[in-house]
Amino acid sequence: MSGVGSSPATGRRLDATPMVSLVMTVLNEERGLPAFLSSLRAQTLPPDELVVVDGGSTDATVPVLQAWGETAGMKVTVIEAPGANISRGRNLAIERAQHQLIAVTDAGTCLDAGWLAALVAARTQDVDVVSGFFEPTWGSRNERLFASVLMPLLDEIDPDEFLPSSRSLLITREAWQAAEGYPEWLDYCEDLVFDLAMKRAGLRFVLQPAAVARWSARETWRAYAKQYYRYARGDGKAGLWPKRHALRYGAYAAGVAGVLGPFPAVVRPLLVLGFAGYCAKFFRRAWRRRPPGVRATLRFLAAVPAVVVVGDVAKMAGYPAGLAWRRRSRSGQ
């Protein structure tokens, strides 16, 4: 593992806001970094330092970060740790960070200009974790479709139950320590496990919807299915949401049984109504984020059931793979 740092001559702003370290991990992010770094430079409240852990990029990710750090107006530290997964990278970055307030994001995002300012403003003495929000951005029809259908709307969120993504998060160093860091044994869903550990430690969360990080979904159906397979495999590895996954298997099993059963003419209309109800929230999201034009909107909405089914099938394939890994891991202890 190696590290490089740069410390520009510009000074800290003269106000009473707390010092903040921004941490993230990267792997072959050369293409997406310019947009992210541009959004970071535009922050109304810039972080006091940026600490990045590179997991072994083979493109120009590290040189891009190093070059940007020369004129960034903040201290930039790039730690090269080939083979480090996301959890290991975040833990390394937080260990190296100099300040007690830690903002966390992903390189694939674009941060609204007021992102960090909103996170810091929501943090009070009795708040340990500030949950930022996220919104979709897109450059293609598929990206718009997947993001529109799958990303929750703000009015769907229960602030008391919301588990923040680590693409938009502010924590204290003490909160990270109380959770014993990100789980380095887990490759996906690591931020949810980290959130739940902080919840178990009795830490106080607050939702700050004004702190928006924007990110795009996958560009192809295959990449989308692979992503949700991995998410569900992570659930299985971590033992998360067993009832939720069981309900999904049960619903699809009932649907198949209804179609193949002896009374399809009676059962099929009920199945259609049931599936429509299941998809209602996804249609609502798609409608709110619909493209302009009647024909484009109709095509967009017609694709919603396919997005739901492909994602569900990917989850139903990934979850048992994660459970199998979990059993093997336990038997090997």
Automatic annotation (TrEMBL):
Domain Glycosyltransferase 2-like: 21-134
Protein name as catalogued: Glycosyltransferase
SUPFAM superfamilies associated with the record: Nucleotide-diphospho-sugar transferases
InterPro entries with a match to the protein in the record: Glyco_trans_2-like (IPR001173), Glycosyltransf_2 (IPR050834), Nucleotide-diphossugar_trans (IPR029044)
